[in-house]
Design goal:
455 residues, mainly alpha, single chain, globular
Length: 455
Amino acid sequence: MFNSAVFKANKLPILLTIVSAVLYFTFAYNLERTAHVKLVSIYVILFTSFYFLIKSNKVNTNFLTAIAFLFRAIFILSIPNLSQDFYRFIWDGRLILQGINPYLYTPESYISQAQYPVAQAQELYNGMRQLNASHFTNYPPINQLCFIIAGVFAGKSIIGSAMVLRLLIIVADFGILYYGKKLLKQLKIPARNIFWYILNPFIIIELTGNLHFEGVMIFFLIWSLYLLHARKWKWAAVVFALSIATKLVPLMFLPLFFWWFLKKQTIKNFIKLITFYTIVLVTTLLLFAPFFSSQFIDNYAKTVGLWFSNFEFNASIYYIARAIGYWFRGYNEIAVIGKVLPVITVLFILYISFFKKNTSLKKLITAMLFSFTIYLFLSTTVHPWYIATILMLSVFTNYKFPLVWSFIVIISYLAYANTDNTENLWIIALEYVVVFSVFIWELLKKRNKTVIEAV
C-alpha cells in the first residue's frame, strides 16, 4: 500500500533512484557509444543523481547498498556497449576448456586459417575486432579462471557468458563493500565513504556494465589490506598475489611495504618483510605455472610491452612529450618516450617507498594512491576503467581528484564519435586541465595545512 508520509519524507532519494534506474536501463539497452551527446548527457545526470543520493542519505546506508546493487542488476541481460574486450574474455575461457593455452596463440592465427577452435568463434572474432585478435592475450590467471567459469556455464551463448562474467564482478563488489566498510571503521573513517566507489556511475557502467575486471583485482587488494591491518600478514601476502594474478597493477605497490614491516628495524621484522615478498612471489608464480613455457614468457612480455611502445589513448604528459618529439624529430617518438616514462614512474615509486616512511595503513594506502596516479599521468594509454583503482584507494584518504576524474573521464569516449576513432586533443586537454587542477589544488591545500600545523 502506498504510504504518502514515507514518500514525502524520502521524496528526493526516491525520485533520484527512479530517474537513475531509467537512465541506467537506457544506457544498458539503448545506447551506442558513437551517440556522444546522449552518452555524455545520461552520464552527467547519473553522476549528479549519485552525488545527491549520497548527500541526502548519510545515515541510511542500507538504502544506498540496496540501490547500488539494484542498478547493477539492470545490466544483467545487456551486452557491453563501450568496450569489446569481453569477446576476448569469452574466447580465452573457451579455449582453455578445449585444453589450449590461450597465451600461445592469437585468435587471428586460427581465423586466418579458417579454424574455429571454440563455439561461436567467428562471432567472437568479429566482436573483439582485428586489433585485439592479432595480439596474444595479456590477462593473468585469476582473470582466466573467471573466463573459464563463464565457459563452463555458458559455453555456447555470448550473452550467457556475459551474464556469468557480470555476476562474478558483482560478487567482487559485494566483497569490496564488506571489507571496505570494515577497514574504514578500523581506520576511524566514516564507513559511508565506500559509497563514493560502490554507487559511483563510473564503477557501475565500466565494471558491471562493460565487464572490466578491475573490480575483482580491487576486491583482493582491499581484502589483503584488511588482513594486513589485522596482522595476518602471511594471508595478506597470499591474497595480494591473487590481486596481482587478476591484474598486474598491484606489482607496482610491492616496494611500498618496506617501512610497513620495518617500523622497528630488527632482524625479526626484516625476515617478515622478506617472507612477505617471498609468499607473494611464489603464490603468483604458482598461479601462472599451468600456462608456463618459454614461448609464454616471450609472448606475454611482448604483449605487455605493446602498452608502452605501440598503443596510445587518453594520455596526458605523454601527449605533451609526443608533441615535443614531433617538433624536434618530425615523427612519433613513442618507442623512445614509452620506455622513458615508465622509468620515471619506477623512480618515483622507489622514492616514496624508501624516503617516505609508510608505517601506518593510511600512509601506505596514500602512497599506493599516488604511485598509481603518477603511473596514469605518465602512461601512453589510460582507458577510463583504469581509474577505478585510485577511486577505491581515495575513499581511505581526503583526496577527491579521483572522484572528479571518474566524472570527467567520460569525455574520453568522444573519440568514438568519429568514424576513424581519432581523439580530439582539445577534449583530452579539457579532461586533464580539470584533473590536474584539482590534483594540484589538493596538494597545495595539504601542504599549507601541514605548514600551519607545524607553526
